[in-house]
Amino acid sequence: MSELGEIWVYLAREPLAALTATLLAWIGALRLQRLCRRHPLANPVLFAVLILAAGLLLSGIDYRSYFEGAQFVHFLLGPATVALAVPLHRQWEAVRRSALLAALSVITGGLFAAAVGVGIALALGAAPEVVASLAPRSVTTPVAMGIAERIGGLPSLTAALVIASGITGAALGPLVLNLARVEDMRARGLAMGTASHGIGTARALSVSAAAGAFSGLAMGLNALASALLLPLLWHALAG
Amino acid sequence: MIGPLTTLLSCQLAGEVLARALHLPVPGPVIGMALLFTGLLLRGREAPPALHATADALLGNLGLLFVPAGVGVMLYLPVLARDWPPLTLGVLAGTLAAIAFTGRLAQRLLRGR
Questions:
Q1: I need a surface site. Which of A116, A137, A201, B81 has the fewest CB within 10 A?
Q2: What is the pLDDT at residue A146?
Q3: Residue B58: in which H helix or E strand, if any?
Q4: Cβ of A13: how many Cβ atoms within 10 Å?
Q5: What pLDDT shows up at residue A6?
């Protein structure tokens, strides 16, 4: 019995178990996605998160000790974001012809995303810090947390809302774009990257190289535009 | 693989340093993406095949990298239970409306280009 206890102590201390569990959940999520015949609603990020969250709740392991191991996967988000420059460069001929108009779409779309979220929350009588946490939710996590801090939101709640918006857009975005009859791959990529940052970009990349490049571009541009414009507009309108 | 990985990390590091030194509102990795992109443009040729391969390997599993942070949403289940109407509607309707709006706008603006 004490031997089992020792093994448990080892597993809880080292990152090995959390890392392995994350990769196993991801492989399981990809299997599930294939079982669903790659239906757009069958999003692997959502599946893997549900599998791991259920596992943590059932085993009573708290999120903090899980993340201590899983942070090695999390860390790769940095270099992966830098790597988005490569598909963008590959598609540069197509991007260059429409760069200004693409930027205009992204900036307008990003402000629209913030305005709709804020409008819904205000209409439903949410607390001011909840309203402010919803405003930057379509922007990539670190920027969104910074914006939330400057407009009186809760950065950690914002981080959760960012992820939820990313998964929502990745799972339902392609269906919405079909309904709205948006067929242009560039426009589809721009929409996914503007509203659903990196998680939307992951989805766009898996569909088309052009959509992926435009989505990565939209994610970066929306981060820049929202970081500059949202706090200014917020204080102008609220104060 | 080590060469391209070093390139990516160097760009990220330079981006983080620039963001802090100049108090830029954009995170280091996004600046690193701009730096790498500028570097590739200045180089004038195709990006080296090894960089393509490493970038494709990382981006091919981009979704996986969001999983650890995604599991963190479970910490907010109590807040979600209390404030669920504005939060779920704000996220769901807000995100889907933004996707439809941005997609339509971009398609109209980019038509014929």
A1: B81
A2: 86
A3: helix B49-60
A4: 12
A5: 83
Evaluate whether residue B51 is within a structural domain: yes
Chain B touched by A85 (CB under 8 Å): yes
Provide, as residue numbers in chain A, all residues whose Cβ is less than 8 Å from the Cβ of B5. 79
ipTM: 0.91
Amino acid at B1: M
pTM for this one?
A: 0.87
Measured between alpha carbons, how far is residue A139 from residues A72, A106, A108, A173, B80 in Å? Answer: 23, 11, 13, 16, 20
pLDDT at position B83, please? 86
DSSP state at residue B73: G
Question: How many independent structural domains does chain A possess?
Answer: 2
Find the largest Cα–Cα distance for chain B: 55
Task: Name the percent of chain A in helix, strand, coil, to the closest 5.
Answer: 85, 0, 15
Q: List CB contacts (< 8 A) between B55 and chain A.
A: 83, 85-87
DSSP string spanning A168-197?
HHHHHHHHHHHHTT---HHHHHHHHHHHHH
Range of the domain at A177: 82-238
Least confident of A97-106, A169-178, A230-239: A230-239
Q: For A98, phi and psi rounded to 5 degrees?
A: -125, 20
Are B20 and B43 in a shared domain?
yes
- Within an 8 Å CB–CB cutoff, is residue A67 touching chain B? yes
Does residue A11 register a pLDDT over 80? no
Q: Which of B67, B86, B102 is the last residue of a domain?
A: B67
Is residue A8 domain-shared with residue A125, that is, in the same domain? no
B42 CA: distance to closest CA in chain A (Å): 11
- What local confidence, expressed as pLDDT, does residue A1 receive? 55
User: Where is pLDDT greater, at A18 or A8?
Assistant: A18
Q: Quote the mean pLDDT of chain B.
A: 91
Q: A52 and A97 share a domain?
A: no
